[in-house]
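Let's practice the habit of predicting before peeking. Look at the sequence and jot down your guess about where helices and strands might fall. Then scroll down.
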Amino acid sequence: MRNVLAAFDFSPLSKEALKTTGAVARLYDAKVHVLNVILRPPMIESALVSLDVLREERKRKIEETLRELNLEGSIIIKSTGSCVAHVIMETAEEVNADLIGLGRASVDINETDFIGTTVLTLKSISSIPLLVTTHRGRSEFRKVLVPVSEKRDSFDSIPFAVEFCRRAGCELTILNIFETAGFEFTQAEEDRIKEIFAENLKPYLHILKEVPYKLEIRPYDIASSGIVMYAHENQMDLIIMERRKKLNLIERLFYQSTTQRVMRASTVPVMVL
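Done guessing? Here is the structure:
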């Protein structure tokens, strides 16, 4: 990880997101690029008159915030009359970002409105990992959570998480959630779930020895609720998840994946690889 882009809009949550993003960048000695997007009203020429002045004012305020958070970084100010997410994506590509950090205001797991939401739009169009802070930011990391399921590709985030924990000197928890949807599982079914978990974990056992770690298997009615609840109750500092792969355009816009629901509801920062 060499370059990190932090989207910043001067809101308190945005400041918390910048704190978290900066903390991750420090672990990798990565350069921080702070992006602020000025929303330019379409068809109003007078709004362009003081654009340069507005840019300078915002640059000065961002410099103050960086000093307050004890961070260093370049500052990028852009303006748009359309989609902020696309400006963030464009800028991420320009600076060769390995991570995009930003804030997310909603903490409602049942919220289903998707289109027009910057974070979730980025999730659908970006192949660059996202770091989403929805509540209190983190300046250090002591506990990291990797949720997995019966799907083998949900384990793909383990190597990155191990390296992250090695750099941060923190504990890693791998949480296997099996979704019950309100049904009772037989002992045989639970044993089978444990067997699948153990089998999927085998390729990663040798690297897990590099960090303190523990394994958990928990049943929950809804997987996303279980992940959010576990992270909150166990005071996790970061959730690292794989995004669902191989979705078509319509599915990317409307499909409510577990990762998407966790991003919406978690009060713990979430990194989506």
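How did you do? The radius of gyration is 20 Å.
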